[in-house]
Recover the amino acids of this structure.
């Protein structure tokens, strides 16, 4: 990349600092809590669209073709396309505008969760790091190129989407892709910094499956419990303790989880990352009754290279096998219900976008650009689902996401905008 031009781009980003800070602060003030959470519906409804209407005005001023696109009424995504001169690769910047609820206000220590407060180092408030900061940085990266008089060959596409925090991608990211806002590669602008690892590049994420199983026993009065549990008693003819039977299933899944620590691996994850987490339990009637039922729910975290259907088969087989040694469960097997799947993504490191983004990130920050597997999930999965090689890189510490201390460092917003700008040039080419 031409040194003089690079310097000019970076200087332009620096010059945009105040505009970037103001825009991030402004959108953090908008209470765009995902409506699915049900948090103060009269406040949060329409919040997402208020954010995208705000970013629309920035694109309008920049003279970039854009539209508010509502797949669901009242929840507008912002899609924009900067037309390249032709003959280059296109690049998509994706990010969500919805945020999680602020949680317990007392824990915010007197801070208004939607203050958008700015001091020398940070912008504070829900959504600052996850991930309004990243979205704004990407838009201003393009502005810095425009001001440098650069016209790229490839198109630069933006999606500011709704509903990510509750995985309603069919009205957010997936809808925007189906509307035609696609590209040859994508960067999701979620926060990827940690103290010792600035600007990691997530090239994979876990998948998350949720399920529940229920076991039915046979209720009887607690006075008959002796008959139920003792050798020589009436046994199953009198009653069956559902908790006791449920523990057979619980222990089998716990043992499978232990085995996963040895058998499920991915080069970007620590051993033991992939888990079968028992999350909730309910059952029983009253102290006077041998419990007739138990239900447990789980969140299952699985490796990027595996599929939900494979994991489901493995879990079902494990439960089935565990039940074969028990006369009651053999006849009345647990009912398993699959509730939710957030698929993983797994981008091949040989994809050009990986090496190009690593190079540009290291031009700004020498320690940046470590390839990493994301321990949670994001919309990159739905980009990959449509065949787009996707990576995640953005400003801010992931640990502040969804926390009461949420904030984004201003220096990282500026660095992110610089990385994005250089990547636009490097990937899309200059006309
Ligand atoms: Zn996020």
């Amino acid at each position: 990349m031409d040194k003089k031009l690079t310097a000019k781009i970076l200087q332009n980003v620096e010059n945009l600092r105040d505009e970037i800070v103001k825009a991030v602060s402004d959108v953090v003030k908008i209470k765009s809590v995902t409506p699915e959470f049900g948090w103060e519906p009269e406040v949060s409804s329409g919040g997402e669209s208020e954010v995208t209407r705000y970013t629309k005005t920035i694109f309008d001023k920049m003279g970039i073709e854009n539209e508010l696109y509502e797949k669901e009424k009242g929840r507008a995504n912002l899609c924009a396309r900067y037309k390249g001169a032709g003959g280059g690769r296109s690049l998509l910047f994706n990010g969500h505008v919805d945020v999680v609820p602020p949680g317990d206000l007392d824990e915010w220590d007197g801070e208004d969760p939607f203050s958008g407060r700015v001091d020398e180092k940070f912008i504070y408030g829900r959504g600052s790091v996850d991930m309004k900061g990243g979205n704004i940085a990407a838009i201003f990266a393009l502005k810095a190129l425009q001001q440098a008089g650069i016209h790229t060959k490839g198109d630069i596409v933006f999606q500011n989407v709704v509903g990510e925090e509750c995985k309603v991608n069919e009205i957010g990211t997936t809808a925007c892709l189906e509307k035609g806002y696609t590209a040859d590669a994508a960067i999701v602008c979620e926060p990827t910094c940690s103290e010792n690892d600035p600007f990691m590049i997530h090239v994979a994420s876990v998948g998350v499956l949720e399920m529940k199983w229920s076991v039915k026993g046979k209720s009887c009065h607690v006075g008959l419990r002796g008959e139920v549990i003792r050798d020589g008693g009436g046994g199953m003819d009198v009653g069956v303790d559902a908790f006791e039977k449920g523990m057979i299933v619980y222990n089998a899944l716990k043992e499978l989880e232990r085995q996963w620590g040895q058998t499920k691996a991915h080069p970007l994850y620590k051993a033991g990352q992939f888990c079968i987490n028992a999350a909730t339990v309910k059952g029983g009637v009253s102290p006077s009754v041998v419990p007739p039922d138990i239900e447990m729910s789980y969140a299952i975290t699985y490796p990027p290279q595996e599929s939900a259907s494979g994991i489901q088969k493995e879990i079902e087989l494990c439960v089935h096998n565990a039940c074969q040694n028990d006369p009651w469960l053999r006849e009345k097997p647990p009912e398993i219900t699959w509730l939710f799947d957030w698929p993983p993504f797994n981008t091949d490191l040989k994809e050009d976008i990986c090496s190009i983004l690593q190079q540009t990130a290291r031009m700004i920050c020498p320690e940046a650009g470590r390839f990493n597997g994301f321990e949670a999930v994001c919309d990159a999965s739905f980009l990959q689902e449509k065949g787009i090689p996707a990576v995640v890189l953005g400003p801010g510490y992931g640990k502040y996401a969804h926390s009461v201390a949420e904030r984004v460092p201003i220096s990282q917003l500026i660095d992110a905008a610089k990385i994005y700008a250089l990547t636009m040039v490097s990937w899309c080419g200059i006309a």
